[in-house]
Amino acid sequence: MARKIFVNLPVKDLPVAKEFFEKLGFSINPDFSDENAGCVVISDTIHVMLLTETLYRTFTPKDITDTATSGETILCLSADSREEVDRLVEIALDSGGKPIGETQEAEAMYGRAFQDPDGHHWEVMYMDMSAG
After folding, report:
1. Which of 36-42's residues contact partners 24+ apart within 8 Å by CB, and which partners?
2. Mean pLDDT per 10-residue run, the chain (132 residues)?
3. What is the pLDDT of residue 7?
4. What is residue 132's predicted lDDT score, i.e. its pLDDT?
5. Number of domains in the chain
6. Predicted pLDDT at 93
7. Where are the alpha helices (DSSP H) in the chain?
8. CA–CA separation, 98 vs 89, rounded Å?
9. Which residues cross the membrane (predicted)?
10. Which one of 64, 86, 114 terminates a domain?
C-alpha cells in the first residue's frame, strides 16, 4: 500500500486559498472539506488540508507562524518538464501568489518558487534524470 501524506496548513481566508489551488489545476475533495477546511488533492497520495486558523489551533498549542516574517516549511512539487514548472509558477503568480528568490538552474535541475496567498513557501522542481 502506498503511504499517503496530508499536509496541514493554516489559512486566513479559506475560499481564497481553495480558489488559488484550483487555479493551479488541483481539485478540492468535498468529502474532507467544509466551512473550516478544504482538502486539496495534489495526487492520489498527497493532500493539502487548508484549515482556517481557528480549526488549525485545535490541533496544536503552538503559535501559528507569521509567514510574512518567518519560514515554517518549504513545500516542493515535482514537475514533468521545465515548461510545466514555468506554467504552474506563472499561474500561481497570476492567481495571487508572490515570487520567491531566483530561478534555480543546474545541469539536471530546474526550479522556481512562490508564496501562496497565505505566505506558504512552494517550489516547483523539474529533475532531468537522463542528464545524470
Report:
1. 38/14, 42/77
2. 94 98 98 98 97 97 94 95 97 98 94 97 93 62
3. 97
4. 57
5. 2
6. 98
7. 14-23, 53-57, 82-94
8. 9
9. none
10. 64
CA 60, 64, 70, 74 torsion: positive or negative?
positive
44 and 79 in a single domain? The answer is no
> Torsion angle, CA of 98/77/83/80, rounded to 10 degrees?
-170
CA–centroid distance for 123 within its chain: 8
The domain of 15 spans: 1-64
Task: Choose among 119, 106, 128, 28: nearest CA to 73.
Answer: 119
| Residue 19 CB neighbours (<10 A) | 16
Q: Do 28 and 39 touch, CB atoms closer than 8 A?
A: yes
